[in-house]
Amino acid sequence: MTALLAPTEALEESQRLITTLEQLRGELAFADDILAIHRPTHHELQQSHLRGDQAVAAWRAALAQRWECEVAGRRLYKRMLRQLAAHYGGDHAPEVQMLSRGGAEAESSPTELLADLRRLQSATMVGTAVQAFGGAAQAEFEQVCGALEQAIDTANLCEAQRRNAALDSRLANEAYRRARFETRRRLSEHYGDRLGDVFGGLLD
Description:
The protein is an all-alpha fold. The protein has six helices and no strands. The longest helix is centred in the C-terminal third of the chain and has 63 residues, at 129-191.
């Protein structure tokens, strides 16, 4: 069986094969039959390649946006935690210690960061902290948390779309591989040892 080519290689080879077959229509009686298989296969290769490029670009953009939101979230977390510690009299105050994850906050995932921010927001809404932090802090929490949550959802969606596009690409390549194998079989029966001369190693 013919090995599966990389997406770009399959697309380029498919185009060369179609071009060669079109040139042989005058001498190859079943050229149109083969072209009828390869043209839609080539179209699907093109479309899957385009979808793949678009999905990767969208995924990268979503990751960049999520990173910006993470940076804003970590800055807000550190600033508000310092203010909370100052309000309650230091880092060892029980109200501050209950928010700690033992330093794991620094390595938190985007989802964990969002949870950390929500816990910190809740801590600024109880007891004497309510008046100390006020509505401006709550508005900032809502804005940063909302942006981060949306960025996480978008990145997850784009990741799923990227995976689906990669699967589509593999399926399109597999369809081309099968078409190529059958084409080589038929052409070998027709041309015999001359196959390499006619197709210039294209179907090797």
